[in-house]
Amino acid sequence: MPSLSEETNGAVDMLAPGATIGIVGGGQLGRMMALAAKYMGFRVGTLDPTEDCPTAQVADFQIVADYDDTAAIRELADRSDVLTYEFENVDADALDAVRDRVAIPQGTDLLRVTQNRIAEKTFINDHGIATAPWAPVRNHAELLAALDEIGYPAVLKTAEGGYDGHGQIVLTSADDLEQVWPDDAFPTAILEGFVDFAYEASILVSGNGGDYVTFPVVRNIHCDNILHKTIMPAPMDGAMQQEARALAVELAKGFELAGTLAIELFVCADGTLIVNELAPRPHNSGHYTIEACDFDQYDLHVRGICGWPLAQPQQLTPAAVMVNVLGQHVEPTRAAIADHPEWHVHDYGKAEAKHNRKMGHITVLTDDVERTVAGLDATGCWADITDRG
Ligand code: AMP
């Protein structure tokens, strides 16, 4: 049993290969974490309600149960040496309840903060880092008061449970107030000033025990609030890259991070960096690291939670483009594989290709982003995406 340290939020002594990593959640992020863990010789278990989920297909065992099933979490804890999670909507109380049975190096503070936009924005601002202007709101009176301060346009977001734009209402004028929930169904929410960003970006930070390393800043292109494409590197100068890396390390230190944390940014035309949100885990926009960096975000997550030392990851290619394969892109991309030996094809092994469901991704290493993006677009596989960047 690894020793838990209060001071380091539960960091473990170096876990030896052969130890078992339990992953709460069995989606694609867990699958790629498991693949990294497997080549390092760890055993992997996952807890997920869907039998033969993406992670289970590459893991040693699966416990088929809901994420908040406390008996199942206890079983996973008892069969594991270290516990982690691949998505943030995990029941933090249920994890706290097994902290005496298994190491949870990420702790649950990180989870609680990133599950709630009020706690998250407060944490970010308390560390001297900029967000959009924001205010907590619980009813129409508070919303109107916040709009007086922040002004239109603004975005109203539920404090908890929102993802990929769900639970968000853009308010451009008082006419849009009709779309807002009635007072008796008003969730705890935040009002955020609308940021007129030049582009969206993200950065990953990994580590443990106070030593943190960062990956290059990347540019992200969304369509319908779902990530479509990531381009590494982001079109920013060295000073801005350094600023992004510094804020990422500052946040990691604040959380006493063990593992990988993703930070989503808005980059403004005047060069200002604004943090949009945090993900306490590897991130879709970091898939490119698998081929484009010597250590990828999953390697460093596993090393971080297992108490291994981390080296600063090195970029192996001048640039890379990662494109998501959603349900509607599965058929055309599969048909195109034969013509694209340069594609690094990832398929998550999901049974059903629903519209907008993340089914896989493709990464292309390049020294000419424009040509590569044009080539991907020319395949017609992503014809439904309106903003292809
Ligand atoms: P979120 O769930 O907070 O990541 O928001 C989803 C997407 O909505 C972001 O990736 C942005 O494209 C957009 N968005 C969210 N908040 C703002 C904001 N304050 N200003 C402008 N766009 C926003």
Automatic annotation (TrEMBL):
Biological or metabolic pathway of the protein: Purine metabolism; IMP biosynthesis via de novo pathway; 5-amino-1-(5-phospho-D-ribosyl)imidazole-4-carboxylate from 5-amino-1-(5-phospho-D-ribosyl)imidazole (N5-CAIR route): step 1/2
Record protein name field: N5-carboxyaminoimidazole ribonucleotide synthase
GO cellular component assignments: cytosol
Catalytic activity: 5-amino-1-(5-phospho-beta-D-ribosyl)imidazole + hydrogencarbonate + ATP = 5-carboxyamino-1-(5-phospho-D-ribosyl)imidazole + ADP + phosphate + 2 H(+)
Record has Coiled coil as a keyword: no
Keywords: ATP-binding, Ligase, Nucleotide-binding, Purine biosynthesis
Residue intervals of the ATP-grasp domain: 121-306
EC number: 6.3.4.18
Protein species of origin: Bifidobacterium criceti
One GO term of the biological process aspect: 'de novo' IMP biosynthetic process
Superkingdom assignment: Bacteria
Family per similarity comment: Belongs to the PurK/PurT family.
InterPro entries noted in UniProt: ATP-grasp, ATP-grasp_carboxylate-amine, ATP_grasp_subdomain_1, PreATP-grasp_dom_sf, PurK, PurK_C, PurT/PurK_preATP-grasp, Rudment_hybrid_motif
Molecular function terms, GO-annotated: 5-(carboxyamino)imidazole ribonucleotide synthase activity; ATP binding; metal ion binding; phosphoribosylaminoimidazole carboxylase activity
Subunit structure: Homodimer.
SUPFAM superfamilies (UniProt xref): Glutathione synthetase ATP-binding domain-like, PreATP-grasp domain, Rudiment single hybrid motif
Function description: Catalyzes the ATP-dependent conversion of 5-aminoimidazole ribonucleotide (AIR) and HCO(3)- to N5-carboxyaminoimidazole ribonucleotide (N5-CAIR). Catalyzes the ATP-dependent conversion of 5-aminoimidazole ribonucleotide (AIR) and HCO(3)(-) to N5-carboxyaminoimidazole ribonucleotide (N5-CAIR).
PANTHER family: PHOSPHORIBOSYLAMINOIMIDAZOLE CARBOXYLASE, PURINE BIOSYNTHESIS PROTEIN 6/7, PUR6/7
Binding site for ATP: 117, 157, 162-168, 192-195, 200, 222, 276-277
